[in-house]
Amino acid sequence: xxxxxxxxxxxxxxxxxxxxxxxxxxxxxxxxxxxxxxxxxxxxxxxxxxxxxxxxxxxxxxxxxxxxxxxxxxxxxxxxxxxxxxxxxxxxxxxxxxxxxxxxxxxxxxxxxxxxxxxxxxxxxxxxxxxxxxxxxxxxxxxxxxxxxxxxxxxxxxxxxxxxxxxxxxxxxxxxxxxxxxxxxxxxxxxxxxxxxxxxxxxxxxxxxxxxxxxxxxxxxxxxxxxxxxxxxxxxxxxxxxxxxxxxxxxxxxxxxxxxxxxxxxxxxxxxxxxxxxxxxxxxxxxxxxxxxxxxxxxxxxxxxxxxxxxxxxxxxxxxxxxxxxxxxxxxxxxxxxxxxxxxxxxxxxx
Length: 351
Ligand code: SF4
Hints:
This protein has eleven helices and twelve strands. It has 351 residues and is α/β, with parallel strands linked by helices. The strands form two sheets. It has a nine-stranded mixed β-sheet. Strands 10-11-12 form a three-stranded antiparallel β-sheet, with no helix packed on it. Helix 6 packs parallel to helix 8 (190-196). The longest helix has 14 residues, at 282-295. It is globular, with a radius of gyration of 21 Å. The structure holds iron/sulfur cluster. Residues 102, 105-106, 109, 111, 115, 148-149, 179, 207 line the site of iron/sulfur cluster (SF4).
């Protein structure tokens, strides 16, 4: 992609960082890949040291600090990898990772040890073996194209994968996880959109974390997918200094729904190396979700989830509104309403 910023000198030239930070950030860029597309660079307010877009994409010297609980494979992908490019964590679905490059490299990425320009994409034989694995496992109902970013593939290569999956009778759903509509919306050409069309149900899950990312060009790209009949969902990562306040989350989720994108997941940040400065506690995340419950409709509420370290799977970790009434001898419940008041709910009664 033309005009993409990939190193500290280019960040200085683009005015994203002052020259005196270049040496420190060159060391970070040598450890973790950097890519900032022109669309994203245009959103960065370089006069704001705490700019929420810069925090996501401009490296920070703190990335070279590793906190005790951080891991190279924070969600345990590698413990569920029967063949290269496949993660088979749950019986009915797999991740297929055909490519390890992304349009941008997010500073909080959970696969930051695997993605980047040096990361190997599947070659033809490896891709064939990964597709054979899916073909020969008839319990696989859903295939999630992830990576890296699958929309970095050419329309021709993407179409070949979609056609192969489309031909497998047991595969009912193909889900695409992507940052392209937000980071490089112009890449979502009519040819690429056409390549996504299939007989099977296709869902696109776009990754957006801040309402400022949802520009007119991004809305137009999402519109191209919607008009092609592809349902859109979103995933966001809850990040310190980016979107860890209820007004930002409310604006993000309202804007997504208004552009026909259903907020699907709000991820608690994973324990990836060098990301402690972008993480917050689970309690803070739950408090934010509680605030949203009273402010926006269910359509605007994603599921707040945590991928358990070690590969044990993803679980909802949002606030709990229903608790058994410990003082009651019957099975009464205490239920909290969106304003924080609690109410009794009776046990099940027989007629
Ligand atoms: S787009 Fe996804 S896989 Fe790529 S760097 Fe960002 S979080 Fe990681």
